């Protein structure tokens, strides 16, 4: 029995069923695609199919053989009509019999998905108004195979190879439960997302699109990295997106965070991102969390998602994401940017994590973020796009060179390197550093001071850690010392260990890092001014 065939005459389903009959098979599944009476809103009178028969039969046989080997089914066959077809006629049929229904369903779906993408078949739409046109077969609606054991499951074989009646119950069920690859309309009249340009890829197909649709991704940070991650994942049809960000939009963000508008300044970025993503793809379930991703809160948020994506701009959050991913056994995609350079790392359960490469997080503020070090907008855009790509690979089950490695990208020279990352011994236990009651995590490190002169005239020695060019733009009021951060960290002993210090910078990150370092060097009364001069101005 051949696995694939064309027919110029109506199909004899009884004969086709007989070819698959086997007393050792308890599961049977079939797909039927019918000619329907419209295409993209235009009424259709009939269809005409042509095929490059010699090549098509060889490719069709190859597809059926792949399905039998891949899913372990006993028998499989696909028959496609050629020539003129009237409305309601059966245009394509796929049947599979197997010992169990699960394999039969999977193999049936695989065959129709591969046939529509790989077999050279063309159709000509003949419209009621007398117009006509050839359409190649690279798109068709999603198929659901959910019948009970021994019962054929059928759904509309939409505009790729054939058309199903628009009033058919099976066709309606397919559109309700499965992402579609055509710009159809919801009952309310809104256009539906069209995933055809990615579904046509052999690595995706309808089965891969369904996996993307089932995916749940938590994105930590809705800034320069997060914007491309969120937009590409929403565009791809990821089923659920969580957005965690406690910041509000500032005008200085917009050159790299192009999801937002100038008039949005002052509003929480998580809420803004959710609004834009819902408009981009109404099928995606978007949830906004206007909060920081800290060690206390993130484990509970992450539990409901399949993949974590770190798009933050600080070391503390990046290592929290790493620790939560390892603790929960979830994959994560990490990226960071410094001026023209970026790093990318994909974590998988059982593989190397961030602490396998860097056991201890660098102090926030020691290395400047985008606000302090500067950045051209496309740089985080490129790294965020790579993160989105890696998330889709994870959802599709594809391999990636970013696993157990650190990918270094220099966008000034367009050079990249891959550094091997080895899993550290005892990683699952030693790498996770989630909060412990009474530990150093709870130590008071930041304080609020207003006005700054009160601190300087009281018990604190105020130390300005900013660079000279920052001081020229905005001098610090009141008596203070000016010691740039790098000079202070090079020689902490220049401060008297018996005095109390209030460290000040632009936003509070460098001062917090310095306070942590000074305490480690024996200066126990080193404090950071929370939020830096930016917070002082806001107050």
Describe this structure in words.
It is built from 19 helices and 22 strands. The termini are far apart. The protein has three domains: 190 residues, Alpha-Beta Complex (Aldehyde Oxidoreductase, domain 3), CATH 3.90.1170.40; 216 residues, Rossmann fold (3-Layer(aba) Sandwich); 96 residues, Rhodanese-like domain (Oxidized Rhodanese, domain 1), CATH 3.40.250.10. It is an alpha/beta fold and 539 residues long. A hairpin with a 2-residue loop joins β14 and β15. The longest helix has 19 residues.
Q: Please, how many domains?
A: 3
Report the radius of gyration as a whole number of Å.
Answer: 30 Å
What is the fold named in CATH at topology level of the largest domain?
A: Rossmann fold
Q: Figure out the total of helices.
A: 19
By CATH, the architecture of the largest domain is named 3-Layer(aba) Sandwich
The structural class is alpha/beta
Low-confidence spans: 136-190, 435-442
By DSSP, the count of extended strands is: 22
Distance between the termini: 81 Å
Q: Major beta sheet, specifics?
A: 8 strands, mixed
- CATH superfamily of the largest domain, called what? NAD(P)-binding Rossmann-like Domain
Overall 3D shape: elongated
Helix content estimate: 25-40%
The first-level CATH class name of the largest domain: Alpha Beta
Spatial arrangement of strands, main beta sheet: 12-11-10-13-14-15-16-17
- What's the overall average pLDDT, rounded? 80
Break the fold down into its secondary structure elements and pairings.
Blueprint lengths: L3 E4 L5 H8 L6 E8 L3 E2 L2 E10 L1 H19 L3 E7 L1 E4 L3 E9 L2 H18 L2 E7 L4 E5 L32 H9 L18 H4 L5 H10 L1 E5 L5 H11 L3 E5 L24 H12 L4 E5 L8 H5 L4 E4 L4 H14 L3 E7 L2 E7 L6 H4 L12 H4 L4 H19 L8 E6 L4 E6 L6 H4 L15 E2 L4 H5 L4 E4 L3 H6 L7 E2 L2 H6 L10 E4 L4 H12 L5 E4 L2 H7 L1
Parallel strand pairs: 1-5, 10-11, 10-13, 11-12, 13-14, 18-22, 19-20, 19-21, 21-22
Antiparallel strand pairs: 2-7, 3-4, 4-6, 4-8, 5-7, 8-9, 14-15, 15-16, 16-17
């Amino acid at each position: 029995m051949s696995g694939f065939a064309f027919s110029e005459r109506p199909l004899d389903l009884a004969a086709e069923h007989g070819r698959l009959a086997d007393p050792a098979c308890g599961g049977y599944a079939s797909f039927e695609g019918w000619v329907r009476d419209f295409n993209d809103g235009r009424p259709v009178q009939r269809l005409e199919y042509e095929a490059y028969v010699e090549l098509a039969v060889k490719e069709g046989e190859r597809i059926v053989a792949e399905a039998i080997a891949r899913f372990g089914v006993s028998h499989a066959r696909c028959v496609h009509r050629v020539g003129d077809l009237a409305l309601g006629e059966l245009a394509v049929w796929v049947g599979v019999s197997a010992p169990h229904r699960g394999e039969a369903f999977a193999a049936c779906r695989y065959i129709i998905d591969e046939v529509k993408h790989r077999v050279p078949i063309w159709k000509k739409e003949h419209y009621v108004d007398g117009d006509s046109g050839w359409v190649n077969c690279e798109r068709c609606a999603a198929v659901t195979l959910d019948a009970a054991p021994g019962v054929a499951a059928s759904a509309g074989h939409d505009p790729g190879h054939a058309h199903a009646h628009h009033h058919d119950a099976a066709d309606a069920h397919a559109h309700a439960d499965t992402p579609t690859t055509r710009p159809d309309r919801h009952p309310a009249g809104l256009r539906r997302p069209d995933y055809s340009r990615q579904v046509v890829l052999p690595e995706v197909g309808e089965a891969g699109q369904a996996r993307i649709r089932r995916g749940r991704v938590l994105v930590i940070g809705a800034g320069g990295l997060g914007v491309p991650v969120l937009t590409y994942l929403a565009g791809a049809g990821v089923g659920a997106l969580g957005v965690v960000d406690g910041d509000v939009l500032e005008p200085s963000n917009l050159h790299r965070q192009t999801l937002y508008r100038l008039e949005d300044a002052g509003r929480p970025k998580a809420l803004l991102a959710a609004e834009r993503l819902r408009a981009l793809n109404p099928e995606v379930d978007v949830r906004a969390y206007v909060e920081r991703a800290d060690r206390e809160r993130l484990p509970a948020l992450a539990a409901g998602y399949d993949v974590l994506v770190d798009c933050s701009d600080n070391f503390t959050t990046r290592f929290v994401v790493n620790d939560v991913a390892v603790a929960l056994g979830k994959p994560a995609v990490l990226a960071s940017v410094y001026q023209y350079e970026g790093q990318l790392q994909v974590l998988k359960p059982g593989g190397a994590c961030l602490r396998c490469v860097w056991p201890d997080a660098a102090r926030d503020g020691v290395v400047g973020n985008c606000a302090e070090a500067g950045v051209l907008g496309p740089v985080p855009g490129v790294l965020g796009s790579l993160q989105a790509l890696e998330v889709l690979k994870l959802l599709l089950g594809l391999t990636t060179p970013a696993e157990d490695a650190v990918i270094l990208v220099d966008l000034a020279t367009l050079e990249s390197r891959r550094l091997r990352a080895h899993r550290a011994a005892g990683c699952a236990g030693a790498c996770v550093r989630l909060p412990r009651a009474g530990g150093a995590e709870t130590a008071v490190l930041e304080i609020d001071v207003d006005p700054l002169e009160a601190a300087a005239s009281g018990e604190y020695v105020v130390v300005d850690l900013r660079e000279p060019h920052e001081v020229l733009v905005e001098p610090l009021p009141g008596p203070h010392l000016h010691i740039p951060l790098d000079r202070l960290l090079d020689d902490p002993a220049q401060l008297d260990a018996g005095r109390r210090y209030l460290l000040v910078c632009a936003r509070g990150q460098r001062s917090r890092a310095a306070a942590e370092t000074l305490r480690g060097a024996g200066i126990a009364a080193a404090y950071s001014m929370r939020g830096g001069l930016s917070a002082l101005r806001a107050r």
